[in-house]
Amino acid sequence: MREDWKVKTLSDVCNIYNGSTPLRSKKEFWENGNINWFTINDIRTQGRIINYTSQKISEEGFENSSLKILPPKTILLCCTASVGEYAISNIELTTNQQFNGLVVKENGDLFSEYLFYFASTLKKQLLDISGKTTIDFVSMTKLKKIQIPIPTLSEQKQIVAILDQAFTAIDQAKANIEKNIENAKELFQSKLNEIFSQKGDGWEEKSLSEVCQIQPPKAEARKELGKNEMVSFVPMKEMGINEMYFKSAQYKELQEVSNSYTYFKNNDVLLAKITPCFENGKLGIAQGLINNIGFGSSEYIVYRPSGNLLPEFLYHFLNQQTFRENGARVMTGAVGHKRIPKEFYEGYKIKIPSLPEQKEILSKMNDLSTNSEKIKDDYYKKLILLEELKKSILQKAFSGELTGKELAVEVD
After folding, report:
1. Same domain for 273 and 325?
2. Distance CA 294, CA 240 (A)
3. Which end of the chain is more exposed for a tag (fewer CB within 10 A), N or C?
4. According to the model, what pLDDT value does residue 411 have?
5. Both 115 and 159 in a single domain?
């Protein structure tokens, strides 16, 4: 840091206020509310510049709480659970207890947007000083002691102007890359749809239940293994998205899992049947299971293809976006926890060519998939480099090393 810069604590330059939540049981605290009440969901829907809040509280709710109305340009910093999340407000608001509001003092030492960018660098530091209970938590006492470098106000504004320009360019580059990734995914999906919408000579159209054993009985596992023998265990979180094969390093005794979980074997095709896992493509072929047997989430559908249907061919069929869209239309159940019905995942029609044709199609699909994944990997690497560039720029900004000339070269 430059020698002519001052170093102060956040409590030196900010008034810091913790939020709270009025009692949910009191309807009068929430009904017809007109006071903005901020939560982390507002970041998820708007990004880091807050222009409105999705929830509001009433005057009565405000008066019966410890809340304070925070002015525009307040920096909102999460110190509980999602520690390090941050935003800046363009409006007056209150906030829940996850966030602290950092309001710049009126002595002219600190520019709010400078503090906003500084807040973006604090996640690791906050996690390092957080108390480890059931969730991460940074106390007000610790937060107030965090140090911030303070150049002159004019320098702060120059730094903010440079960062605004740089991050706008970086964000546009990221948006372009993310669009290219989506284009690569759409191209792959269009090829899938093209293949599975055709019907060549000798192709048979059958329901999935006609060509697969669906949800094989757990009795098979009990017959093959003793209750104390080990099986692979695959919770939903371990199932990849758009990865053909999966295996698990988790093992459990058969007796631990045989009653509550779904049974499968090597080369079975597993598909998640619950939102959002189904819509996001949680799908894979089991490989490398210990003792050839696995158990996992009760929300898996297990397909065991018959002799004239290859597991890889079925995988690509189920991986179609059209299949997921059709399934999503008929889902039933509570919002956020809907399932595709049995009639759909058993009765859906598949067109099956001969085994040699399946192998020929799979060879083409593998080449296409390899090329698509390479394109996506290259783009993901570029995204990582852009994030690293952001970190480098911020580090220079708060050590006094950043100039517009240097930055222009880096951004180019």
Report:
1. yes
2. 16
3. C
4. 44
5. no
**Same domain (yes/no): 194, 249:** no
Residue 180 lies in a domain: yes
Residues 306 and 169 in one domain: no
Strands 55-57 and 35-38, bridge-based pairing: antiparallel
Are 74 and 93 a contacting pair, CB within 8 Å?
yes
Cis-peptide, bond into residue 276, ω within 30° of zero: yes
Note whether 74 and 119 are same-domain residues: yes
pTM of this structure: 0.70
pLDDT score at 242: 67
Looking up residue 80, the CATH number of its domain turns out to be 3.90.220.20
Instruction: Read off the pLDDT of residues 21-47 as tens digits, 9 standing for 90 and up.
Output: 999 999 999 999 999 999 999 999 999
Same domain for 359 and 317: no
Backbone φ and ψ for 221, nearest 5 degrees, come out as -65, -40
For residue 306, the surrounding DSSP H or E stretch is: none
Q: Averaged in consecutive runs of 10 residues, what is the pLDDT profile of the chain (412 residues)?
A: 89 96 95 95 95 96 95 96 95 96 91 97 93 80 96 94 92 90 85 81 92 95 91 88 80 92 95 90 92 94 93 93 91 87 95 93 86 86 91 91 58 44
Contact (CB, 8 A) for 347 and 338:
no
Q: How far is CA 239 from CA 101, 244, 377, in A?
A: 39, 10, 19
pLDDT of residue 133: 63
Is the domain of 358 the same as that of 346? no
CA distance 188 to 15: 53
Please tell me the predicted confidence (pLDDT) of residue 134.
67
**Domain residue limits at 65:** 6-150
Pairs from 156-159 (Cβ < 8 Å, separation ≥ 24)? 156/110, 156/111, 156/114, 157/111, 157/114, 159/114, 159/117, 159/397, 159/402
Query: How far is Cα 385 from Cα 3, in angstroms, rounded to an integer?
Result: 31
What CATH number does residue 396 fall under?
1.10.287
Distance CA 354, CA 402 (A): 64
For 249-253, the CB contacts below 8 A with 24+ separation are 251/290, 252/295, 253/227, 253/228, 253/229
How many distinct structural domains can be found in the chain?
A: 3
1 inside domain: no
Q: Which one of 320, 352, 384 terminates a domain?
A: 352
Residue ending a domain, choose from 304, 322, 352:
352
pLDDT of residue 370: 83
Helix (H) or strand (E) holding 384: helix 355-397
